[in-house]
Amino acid sequence: MTRRHLKLLPARGAAPGSDRALAETVREQDKVRPIYAVWEVTLKCDLACRHCGSRAGHAREGELTTAQCLDLVEQMARLGIKEVTLIGGEAYLRPDWVEIIQAIRRHGMDCTMTTGGRGITPARAEQAAAAGLMSVSVSLEATEAVHDRLRALDGSYRAALAALANLRAVGIPVSVNTQINRWTWQDLPALLEVLIEQRAHAWQLALTVPMGRAADEPEMLLQPYELLQVFPLLARLHPRAKAHGIRIFPGNNVGYFGPHEELLRGHVPRGHAGSCGAGKSTLGIEADGTLKGCPSLHTEHWGGGNILDSSLEEVWERATPLRYTRDRTVDDLWGYCRTCYYAAECMSGCTWTTHSLFGKPGNNPYCHHRALEMQRAGLRERVVLKQKPPGVPFDHGLFELITEPLVPYPTDAS
User: What phi-psi label fits residue 67: left (phi over 0), alpha (psi between -120 and 50 degrees) or beta?
Assistant: First the structure.
């Protein structure tokens, strides 16, 4: 791999995520190692989903070459990563996607993939199985009409079902990931029946976050007080899912510390959510080699460096954006989260969610415990878009947080 020079002391005006200066020293807390990497191998996509945070469609400029990808795989293995999930765009739109899977497996790491499923043909499924792909999560958002509306393409739902069938036919285990928003949440019971029919082994659920195209249509988003309906529904679905061997796997922005927390996260060592794992247990990689603590985080603010500028280990240990969760304290929180009973344990939960809303982390209204406490006080919280996003990958707008009496509101899209 040909590397560009990267200075090690602060450099004003460094380009976000590509030429950021690295710290001179490595502290003890920076020697923590990620176990899980999510790798956007291309931003090229055959869908243009209305809730896509990366605004995927066209490939990025300067996406890594095959040789650079294979070098990165070797570096991930040396860093101690145990599992790599390939995402896009659509990973299978890279001509060398099978070679990348083979390299990941050859270096002793698990390899999985997340896909919208439009192009998972029988031939591609066979290629993936032969390469050693271990599991594929296909995105299913709701029943057919709502799914196709979100995907902005009629027939995308049936294509996703065909992908599940093609993968199962070659022996690749399948799971499903679903975005929960105002358009999808009431379809969750019917969608669970589809998962049972498709013999999915897991169901990952995440709240739609106002990043990218999702911020263009804020009426799609759940309001924080609507968690009071969503979480009891998830709890009701849990026994049926478990009975059919489907593990409900809540994403990092689903929680926190409400009465159903143990039910939803009883499988993790602590039995409940912890703080954001970006830069501690997880690593995000963009297709041009930009490194982040979490794949969902905004490039401009959270890109810590580039694999073409320095080694993966150097960026992991020395980049300030990747050190964020290693350094922060309760004093970095603000608003309700600063005074919450669970502040020190939760640290406001998902960094991605709060930065997408307010342009900074530290105060997360999308919390079941918080919604319940608001309800007890006769209040509710509502987010309102005040500044539209600029229209680039991983962008966000700015929202205002409104606290108001818990009474029926004529229109929450205002």
Answer: alpha
The Cα angle at residue 189 between residues 186 and 193, in degrees rounded to 5: 140
174-180/379-387 β-pairing: unpaired
Contact 18, 6 (CB under 8 A): no
Q: How far is CA 386 from CA 183, 223, 335, in A?
A: 22, 15, 18
Residue 29 tokens, joined: 């807390």
pLDDT profile of the chain (414 residues), mean per 10: 33 43 95 97 96 95 97 98 97 98 98 98 98 98 97 97 98 98 97 98 97 95 97 96 96 90 81 86 97 95 96 97 96 97 95 96 96 97 96 94 82 43
State yes or no: cis peptide before 289, omega within 30 of 0.
no
Q: Is 73 helix (H, G, I), strand (E, B) or coil?
A: helix
Phi first, then psi, for residue 383 (nearest 5°) are -110, 140
Report the C-alpha gap between 108 and 294 in whole angstroms: 22
Closest CA to 85 of 285, 262, 361, 288: 285
What's the CA gap between 37 and 307, in Å, rounded?
14
Residue 323 to residue 315: CA distance in whole angstroms: 10
Give 291-324 as a DSSP string.
Answer: EESSTTS-HHHH--EETTTS-HHHHHHH-TGGGH
380: three-class secondary structure by DSSP: strand
The DSSP letter of residue 99 is H
**How far, in Å, are 272, 342, 362, 373 from residue 330 at the CA level?**
19, 10, 9, 20
Nearest-5° Cα angle at 251, 249 to 255: 100
Note the helical H segments in 142-244: 144-151, 156-169, 188-198, 227-243
Report which residue type is found at 4: R
Residue 88 and residue 334: Cα distance in Å, rounded?
34
Q: What is the pTM of this model?
A: 0.92
Angle at alpha carbon of residue 215, lines to 253 and 407, rounded to 5°? 70
